[in-house]
């Protein structure tokens, strides 16, 4: 129970009390205070006398602090806002403000301004049981997924909804866990095929984010280097494999062998690479892949070289957009001639993956993949733009929400919260994992520092997520008090424990994700400006 104690205190201080109470035999007179904590904190500046600002405008996100200080920072601006709003309404003789307690269509009463939570989470924490939440699960989940789609299959979502309806906590946990494991461990195999010398190996290295001389990169040379199909696993995510297939158009390449490769069911999709006009070999491959009912994407590489040559030969009449459109139209016409409906052509430069159609290609691949393979694919995406960082952030937040829901279901069972805790070592491991996802691990930070011509220490001082202990440092007394309260709830289980687990897992991980993503954006902008 979180309350603000209004008493005779200096105007610069606010007292915030946290208490846990328990009832005997359902009578309020039998309540006993098992634990309480009072903190003295500075007041926020008063709002100006003009129309008060919204409660979310003057405060950071709810995940900006840890533990009890996080709850204080989370609620204090909203309490301040409500107090000011009521004062103004009384002065202007308006009806009593309902800014905190609000009626939602078909959803009852919830507290969006005070909590900053969505209605589903508010329902969950207000004591609604799982059977009552079941009809709301699917509609709410659809609001959490990115525009590219979610990471759970339709079947998984429906199974989770069904066990919610049945009220079986054990099965709720098992279904969410199984769906997440399926998403995390899904293998992804991409076949890269096309003319010899078209830049297949360079294209694979661009997708992997590796230089041509780095360990694990595809072999690149001026003569054909791929004589048999060669797998290249992603250095961070071994479940992602790009297959470099032997080039067509050479004396050693046999059409029959390619038809066998196309019939191989091991590949999720094909990428047909060409560096010039769409050839008869490319058309044959595209036709056979289409007959097998598999997806393929036509990629024209070396467009930067084509543009440079065109500009050099026609300096007066050269127009970049016109040349790119001519190349695109030529490929589209070739694909239409072999019966490919709604063909997609992507113009890329292997040495400039942040330009031309490379980002659009990755976005298209993400949308077209089966839902359970999107998570695997999105992790290996390079941070080419703010848009890609946001896609990765949204998909990771979707997973955080599902994990928090699982933890809350576990926490309702007595003692289970002890076994599913989120202590400091686990928090540090979680933060390091998110940094790795966004390319802020130790090795990546060194490479960024080298690109910017600065030191690693300078990079760390300009970011918030690279020093864990500074990031999560908290008032020691408040932290111990929170630990005591959490231990009590863990032993007794029930709704109190569920709320603690949900808040702890959800908001802390949101804090980690948001901070890391913001750091990556800041460093990306610095890199582009340098």
Automatic annotation (TrEMBL):
Name of the protein described by the UniProt record? IRG-type G domain-containing protein
GO CC term (a single one): endoplasmic reticulum membrane
Q: Where is the IRG-type G domain?
A: 186-368
PANTHER family from the entry? GTP-BINDING PROTEIN, INTERFERON-INDUCIBLE GTPASE
Q: Which InterPro entries does UniProt cross-reference here?
A: G_IRG_dom, Immunity-related_GTPase-like, IRG, P-loop_NTPase
Keywords associated with the record: GTP-binding, Hydrolase, Nucleotide-binding
The GO terms this record gives for MF are: GTP binding; GTPase activity
Organism per entry = Balaenoptera physalus
Q: What's one Pfam family the UniProt record gives for this protein? A: IIGP
Please give the Gene3D superfamilies that the UniProt record associates with this protein: P-loop containing nucleotide triphosphate hydrolases
The lineage's top-level taxon is: Eukaryota
- GO BP: autophagosome assembly; cellular response to interferon-beta; innate immune response
Q: Keyword DNA damage, does the record have it? A: no
The Swiss-Prot or TrEMBL record describes its family as follows: Belongs to the TRAFAC class dynamin-like GTPase superfamily. IRG family.
